[in-house]
Write a structure and sequence with these properties.
single chain, about 300 residues, alpha/beta, Arc Repressor Mutant, subunit A, D-Maltodextrin-Binding Protein, domain 2, 3 domains, five-stranded mixed beta sheet, 10 helices, about 40% helix, globular
Length: about 300
């Protein structure tokens, strides 16, 4: 009657505190998660948690299953890794390049956890400010690229990670902070601060400005997210950043953020690898650890449906 997915769902519900957050961590819609929990309760004939309580409270039956989850899930995951290593693929190389320059905060914990379980895999990490990483991936110079710009390459497999919203950061006192959303023409009189990469790799140009032929008044480049936020806060420009990367600065009331257009701009972040490597045991485990880490730590992201 019980399934491993049920234990994982209950653990996510406890750790997330709400159905919305649990669904985000499990990469499900809220309705799919609710249906799964209702089906489990009907099978078992007991309620597992008290609905409409804040904070969320589990029944005795729910606590019993949570204890089981805490006992079983770590053992199951370690056994899966051990079996993968026995089957081969326990050593190799994982040289990564990040096109999403705000990804270090969530990617580093995933890398550290991965290193603990795969010590024989050689790991290296860098950013792609100064070169195009996908041709290097095809050549075999690197092994994985974190990107929001998948291209039609027959040799490359793109593993979806999550959807995120690109938002415009503005100074708190900026007139644009009073608008419900930003229109492309609003930026024709603004200095746009961005990372030092080509326009085709920047969400605000690719998905917002370029389709309408709109140009900002001026541009300014910096490699550091913190420097970008400081420049915005001091009124020296505006910047487009992922919602989750900007959230700590919004919480600290350093800057404000507004969506790009009424519907917002929602790119998808991918991990790109060569197709001949995509079934590698250590790569599959890295994908899983990266997904678990980002849905645990990043606010405002959505699963890829």
């Amino acid at each position: 009657m019980l399934d491993i997915k049920h234990l994982r769902t209950l653990a996510a519900l406890r750790d997330g505190g709400t159905l919305v957050e649990a669904a985000r961590r499990m990469h499900l819609t809220q309705s799919a998660l609710s249906h799964q929990l209702k089906d489990l309760e009907e099978r078992l004939g007991v309620s597992l948690f008290l609905r409409k309580t804040k904070p969320l409270r589990f029944t005795r039956a729910g606590l019993e299953l949570l204890q089981l989850a805490d006992d079983v899930l770590p053992l199951l995951r370690q056994s899966e890794r051990n079996l993968q290593k026995m089957a081969g693929g326990h050593s190799g190389r994982l040289h990564m390049v990040i096109e999403c320059h705000s990804c270090f905060d969530w990617l580093m914990p995933a890398i550290n956890s991965f290193r603990d379980h795969w010590p024989e895999v050689e790991i290296d990490l860098s950013t792609s400010f100064h070169f195009e990483p996908i041709p290097a991936l095809i050549r075999g110079d690197i092994d994985l690229v974190v990107t929001s710009d998948p291209g039609p390459h027959n040799e490359i497999y793109y593993q979806p990670l999550f959807r995120y919203q690109s938002v415009l950061a503005v100074a708190n006192q900026h007139p644009l902070a009073q608008q419900d959303c930003i229109q492309p023409t609003d930026l024709s009189s603004e200095t746009l601060i961005h990372y030092p990469v080509g326009r085709n790799r920047l969400d605000i140009f690719e998905h917002f400005l370029s389709p309408g032929g709109i140009e900002p008044l001026a541009t300014r480049q910096t490699e550091l997210t913190l420097m970008m936020v400081q420049l915005v806060a001091s009124g020296r420009g505006v910047a487009c950043l992922p919602n989750w990367a900007l959230q700590p600065y919004i919480d600290a009331k350093l800057v404000s953020a507004r969506p790009l257009g009424k519907e917002g701009v929602w790119p998808t972040l991918y991990a790109a690898v060569r197709k001949d490597q995509q079934d590698s045991a250590y790569l599959q485990d890295f994908f899983q650890q990266a997904l678990e880490t980002c849905f645990r730590h990043l606010p405002g992201i959505l699963p890829v449906s």
